[in-house]
Amino acid sequence: MFPSVSELQNLLAQPRQIFITTHHKPDADALGSSLAWATYLKKKGHSVTVVTPSDYPAFLNWMQGNDEVVIYDPRQNDRQVRDLVNRAELLFCLDFNCLGRINELGEYVRQAPGTKVLIDHHQRPENFADVSFSDPKAAATAELIFEIIRALGDQDLIDQGMGEALYAGIMTDTGSFRHPSTSRNVHLIIAELLSANIDLASVHRRIYDSHSEIRLRFLGYILKDKLVVNREFNTAYIAVTKEELREYESKTGDTEGLVNYALSIEGIVLAAVFIDRGSAVKISFRSVGDFSVADFSRNHFEGGGHHNASGGVSNESLDKTVARFLSVLPQYQAQLVSTPTTPVAVAPPVA
Ligand code: 5GP
Ligand code: MN
Known about the structure:
binds manganese (II) ion, Diaminopimelate Epimerase, Chain A, domain 1, 351 residues, 12 strands, binds guanosine-5'-monophosphate, six-stranded mixed sheet, six-stranded parallel sheet, alpha/beta, inorganic pyrophosphatase (n-terminal core), globular
């Protein structure tokens, strides 16, 4: 299926020093696909290090291989990470497609002497990799990792730990198997992962039902006091200030999923969450149907992502960012009011 599989096979024909990285603030797909791929490569005799460009939510720290992840921190381990990048014969970039998504590591990777391999499912990849597995139709990078391991003839090496990491990536990137990206192939892969004895209920609980009490109260406050519903543009949004994050002792991952509540309102086509991170305002966009938040984010907020799920950033204040967001909505009014909010599922071609 991938023209580059034989190329990959050649690259992996002898034991290699391998560096794997993924995007800033890794989510379950980013970390799950990286860790499953790392375990696979170790089983094949390679030396592998997974480096994340930032920390990640505590609800992901159960994955097999988590204890060996190097979290890049420019003040703590810059020299160590630079050495890893420069010594690597192969560098795998998973679940992102532009080097800006890995912060300072981006320049290190760009200049690295090793062979760069991209494995990703976001739209419009930047051209920095030597070998590329880029499929925007894939539901998750974890789906691609499964496919690549299978194409390399090694499906039987997928153990329970790898299977649960891959399952976590596919489960979260498909919104628990509800987004239109949830193809027949996705379900067939899950069936294969079940053969590796993955514990679905446990993965679900560890990711979705392991919040602190204060995180749940934060959610209650946001939904009651901060959610804005704008019927003129079928848009709902939430803006969270630095003070609110402090008051609710917000930790990495605590704001994840807020945007889905905004999108869950009947009739809403576009949802946005703005988080004041101090250095910048981080934005998440979600949509239903034909409205492309990948384009919206790229056009107005230096971002990108997928058709119905994207992110961006703003260096203006939180208030100014929200004001700018509201000021561009009229350009999209026709689309926003004409989009049916119960999308017709498009059946994917049979694999
Ligand atoms: P989230 O809202 O969950 O952070 O991100 C949604 C999707 O958009 C993810 O696939 C993520 O990789 C992508 N994304 C988030 N932020 C950015 C960004 O600043 N730039 C780009 N290009 N993509 C982003
Ligand atoms: Mn992903």
